[in-house]
Amino acid sequence: MRKTTASKTLALLAALLPFAASAHVGVDGGMHHGFSTGFLHPLTGADHLAAMVAVGFWSALAARRAWPDLLWAPLAFAGMLLVGALMGLAGVQLPAVEPMIAASLLVLGLLVVTRVHLPAAVAMVVVGVFAVFHGVAHGYELASEQGAALTLAGMVCATVLLHVAGIAVGWALRNANAWLPRVAGAAVVVLGASLLAQAV
């Protein structure tokens, strides 16, 4: 039962890969407004969605114990995503935003494939740096919008739920299946490589 549910979840995420471009800077034409739109935004582009799910997925696969290993990377990502979004709103310019988002998928996908365990501080730094760039991309889109605070709140809530989804699938598969997590991680790597080739 657990394997069937996890397989269906991964298949659904894979089906969303063709929408990768829709979460990039400026693509939505400035249509952000309110909590619900912010909540839906991370779900509309496979680059952001894959990164957020992969963080939770990797945390579950690599955790040596459920508490608190499952939480370090997801909390760091969600927190630094918000920091990055606030930076973008404030007009802080960072170089290579799109290449860094693509690189985050490469790295996170490889972490899922290898199930490598990193010390909590290192894991938080790795995902936190990438989360800043994801957040900045969203912040740039919101810079001229009213109701940015509510939109950001929705975005952070969706991010946390995507982390939880990744943790749930990863925890179900950590001892039940050896190859499915590797396939999922490889798909994220391929997506990242594709986006990086377009961005550079």
Report on this structure.
With 200 residues, the protein is mainly alpha-helical. The chain is 72% helix and 0% strand. The chain is built from eight helices and no strands. The chain has helices spanning 2-15, 34-40, 46-62, 72-89, 97-114, 120-142, 148-173, 179-199. The longest helix has 26 residues, at 148-173. It is globular. The protein starts with a helix and ends with a helix. Mean pLDDT is 86; it is low at 12-30.
What tags apply to this protein structure?
single chain, 200 residues, mainly alpha, 8 helices, 72% helix
Termini, distance in Å?
43 Å
Mean of residue pLDDT values: 86
Order of helices and strands: HHHHHHHH
Number of helices: 8
% residues in beta strands = under 5%
Can you summarize the main beta sheet? none
Instruction: Provide the helix percentage.
Output: over 70%
The total strand number stands at: 0
Task: Characterize this entry briefly.
The chain has 200 residues and is mainly alpha-helical.
Helix/strand layout:
Blueprint: H1 2-15, H2 34-40, H3 46-62, H4 72-89, H5 97-114, H6 120-142, H7 148-173, H8 179-199
